[in-house]
Amino acid sequence: MTSTKKSFLGRLFGGLWSIVVGLYRAIVILSLVLLLAVAWMALRGGPPIKVERNVALVIYPTGELVETVDRDAGQLFLEELSGEQPSQTRVRDLVEALDEGARDPRIALAVVKLDQLWAAGLPQLDELAAAVRRFRESGKPVYAHGPYYEQGHYLVAAQADHVSLDPMGSVELLGFGVYDYYFKDALDKLGVEINVFRVGEYKAAVEPFERNDMSEQARQANAEWLGDLWRRFGGEIARARKLPDGAVDRFVSGMADGLAQAGGHAAAYARDARLVDALETLDQFRTRVGAVVGMDEDHGSFRQIHHTRYLHALQRERHEKPAPDHTVALVVVQGEIVDGDSQPGLAGGDTIADLLDEARRDEAVDAVVLRVDSPGGSVYASERIRRQVRALKEAGKPVVASMSSVAASGGYWVSMDADEIWAHDTTITGSIGIFALWPTFHKPLEKLGIHTDGLGTTPLAGAFRGDRPIAPDAARIIQSQIEFGYRSFIDGVASGRELPRETVDRIARGRVWSGEDAKVLGLVDEIGGLDGAVAAAARLANLQEGEYRLEEIQPPQELPIEALIRFAGEARLSLFGSLGAAEAVLRPVERVARHFAWIDDPRGVYAHCFCRPAVSTRWN
Asked: At which of 489, 518, 552 does a domain end?
């Protein structure tokens, strides 16, 4: 019989081998961290950026246009290390670069390049378009060029003095739309019952679970606010390009015939419609701009500075000047509102509430601007944020809500107690209503031969299990809570907006409004962008222009070295096989799950609006 017990020498060599392997892994990790740290410092360091005279300011947003960048330090590091274009661009950065460039004698002109921008809301595009117009009004020219123009691209490009298009490109003006998937037949086939509880006949967020198509009420409401946005869009383009009213509608309706007459040459069709001034390649465009500011032979293009480098240079220059004594704090609510902490694309009620509480306790903060770009989500999380808005006001610090692309349902809930509410005329807001979804899946289980039975000490014990049909008393309990939530919502709006409760109930009921209509109805105080809201907050705090600075309050960010260590750990796991194929399979599933991550209210009660329009064929 052979013993499996290891000898003393075997145990000794085994222990030594484990130590060697451990040291090897530690050396690999440490070397990787040091290498990445050196790369990070090389990327972040270097000599100060110098802004030369007579250069073009290049406005080149990439990825998604956002109110605040919500990538973590690790993502930022990887993007810079790999040389990839940033996946998010902050609207305020573009606006600041244009406004500063308009006053800067070193900047001769601006170039707008938008083909790497793939997602934005209309109000964000309005903010950028207004900044382009202000740059032009300073007397400096703006040139736009693109291989093609999506609808969102073109709204901004149309503000330029000269718009050029690649001869193989097109201007893709097609119209706005709202489309969704409807699951009733699929759920019926699966035997899954979605019990819907809501208040408000226009609260269409639940329709995909109980219908196969859009209801007439939702169709009517959507047609009105979409029509408002499209008219504003077409009117702004006509004004910028000095075209007659209705030119955009005629361009869209005549596209089939126009392209046929142009032999399918989409760029020529756009030029003949006076949407662009010239058809030229990128090299031809560079040469034309270079004739104004000169050519940079090393770069192979005109003399220029990218907007991010320009802002970095300005930031260094500002450090030499004393900062104002007063602060208007900016807190951003971006993405669906969820219970708990914020994550990329999701606004956590706990996180936002803590930021507002921080602003309340900070003696240096005189006023707060709550920038909202959210279709809502969890009622409980929205209420947590609203309470902190109320606490700020009670502490004597004014709060101004500034609505971006969408501030509907829970997005309106968090705004309703602000001293003033500002919105763009193209903001989507309202949707004042409440709903709950309670799925039960006892039928699919029964088809599989799985049955649920048991007993409880009361009729409600087990009444809310998903593997049993919902009991009548349980349904009444949920509906009562929904009606209470709706009453709380309209009572809050009536109090915050100083409107009769009956008036609020009439314009609420889940109906969506454009910012322009919301102002007429009293749901919004003023039409304007973030700059107007900041000025209003300063005015309410009795601050004069030049006495204050705008400072965004954000959650504690992961330090670069922490991101490097985490990245190194992930790389080690990959090397030793802990990740790999399984992770590749799970990542798509995770992305789908994140689409419904807002469904986390502890009571299952939501104020959410599926009301973000499809601005173009690629976006949203």
From this structure: 552
Structurally, the chain folds into a number of domains equal to 2
Q: CA 372 to CA 364: how far, in whole Å?
A: 23
Residue ranges in 304-344 assigned as alpha helix (H): 307-318
The whole-chain average pLDDT of the chain stands at: 85
Candidates 113, 140, 170, 203; catalytic one: 203
Q: Is residue 27 part of a domain?
A: no
Beta-ladder partners of 551: 329
Has residue 541 been placed in a domain? yes
Read off the CATH number of the domain in which 379 is found: 3.90.226.10
Is 6 annotated in the active site?
no
Residue 580 belongs to some domain of the structure: no
Residue 124, both tokens: 């964000």
> By mean pLDDT, which of 156-170, 208-222, 353-367, 370-384 is the weakest?
208-222
Task: Given the residues 170, 382, 409, 431, select the one marked as catalytic.
Answer: 409
- Integer Cα distance of 350 and 485 in angstroms: 20
**CA distance readout (Å), 30 to 195, 566, 575:** 54, 12, 15
203 is catalytic: yes
Instruction: Give the E-state strand segments of 315-374 in sequence order.
Output: 326-334, 336-338, 346-348, 365-374
**pLDDT on residue 15:** 59
Residue 361 sits in the same domain as residue 301? no
Q: What is the pLDDT of residues 9-45, one digit of tens each?
A: 455 555 556 666 666 666 666 666 555 555 555 445 4
Its domain, for residue 520, covers 326-552
